[in-house]
Specification:
293 residues, alpha/beta, Rossmann fold, binds NADP nicotinamide-adenine-dinucleotide phosphate, 11 helices
């Protein structure tokens, strides 16, 4: 049985569809009754729980389970801090997995996870990785770059903006480099882990085949989606001012930390996936053409 935490998210949704197509048996941890109904209609077993509340996880796992832990947040909201969700939540799930003696534990971290990072997101992803390693379970950790595909938050934000903006605003100089990977290629990697968990113990960087600047990525997205616009670089000082003001909104479009992440490279070897998983992931333009079509 495959147990998924975070099944209702962007990547979790793609994983669920992929596994259902392959006839796999799935159990999903869900927080809301809405997600519960949607999954049970597809024949997926559900357990209602929250990884930050260990009492809700008691007894949900069994020795036959391969746990896929995809829970994560990109911005903090009230009690859902990076520390609570990434570190405490992962520690809770690992403790429960250990108690049950599950056969393998997969954790989705992020490229650039670093115990010394200034970014709360990247620092707590690294702390969560440590919690997984300390659990002593057979485990796999993925550190993916930006994952793109139908319904991903990044593409959606840019496309929504392009629909109303006459120009393509780029925060700062847009020169920091990223390595976007298509969700279909991420699925090929996780499928390899599901088929042979023992062959994929350890930590794996997951990225597309190219290093692209932020500006190149958004310009490509605009072009492929048929919204070619002149790009305008907005000074970071101005962006920070706007982000501070937006921080007063209930759901700010961008946080100061997210802006700062746009100023630093987030890349790994261009052949990282080929070396670990033996195939070449799609270049961004081809992936965009496929899913925007
Ligand atoms: N997307 C990317 O480009 C990317 C890149 C690198 C790494 N990652 C990592 O990959 C993972 C999945 O990303 P995603 O884009 O699919 O994220 P997402 O769409 O925001 O989904 C997050 C999932 O986590 C669940 N969740 C949040 N807090 C929870 C809690 N306290 N207890 C139980 N479930 C909780 C959400 O459930 P609800 O539906 O109940 O909110 C949702 O199913 C995350 O760990 C993320 O950091 C993503």
């Amino acid at each position: 049985m495959i147990f998924i935490a975070g099944a209702s998210g962007f990547i979790g949704g793609h994983l669920v569809d992929h596994l259902l197509r392959r006839g796999e048996k799935i159990r999903a941890l869900v927080r809301s009754a809405g997600a519960d109904e949607r999954f049970t209609r597809s024949g997926i077993q559900t357990v209602v729980g929250d990884i930050t509340q260990p009492e809700t996880l008691k007894g949900v796992l069994s020795p036959d389970d391969l746990v896929i832990h995809l829970v994560g947040i990109i911005e903090e909201k009230g009690p859902a801090t990076f520390q609570q969700v990434h570190v405490r939540g992962t520690t809770n799930l690992v403790a429960e997995a250990k108690q049950a003696g599950v056969r393998h534990f997969f954790y989705q971290s992020a490229l650039g996870a670093d115990l010394n990072s200034w970014s709360g997101y990247l620092r707590t992803k690294a702390e969560a990785e440590e919690a997984v390693k300390a659990g002593g379970l057979s485990h796999t950790i993925f550190r993916p770059s930006l994952i793109i595909g139908p319904w991903d938050g990044f593409t959606k934000k840019i496309l929504d903006m392009l629909k109303i903006s006459p120009v393509l605003p780029v925060p700062g100089d847009g020169k920091a480099r990223f390595q976007p990977v298509y969700v279909k290629d991420w699925l090929r990697c996780i499928q390899a882990v599901i088929e042979s968990p023992g062959a994929y113990r350890g930590t794996f960087d997951i990225g597309g085949p190219e290093h692209l600047t932020y500006q190149e990525i958004v310009e490509m997205l605009a072009q492929v989606s048929g919204h070619t616009r002149m790009s305008v670089n907005i000074p970071m000082g101005l962006m920070r001012f706007a982000a501070r003001a937006a921080g007063l909104l209930p759901t700010p479009p961008v946080t100061l930390d997210q802006l700062r992440l746009l100023e630093q490279d987030n890349i790994t070897a261009p052949d990282a996936v080929r070396r670990s998983f033996g195939f070449d992931p799609l270049p961004l333009r081809d992936a965009l053409k496929e899913f925007l079509a």
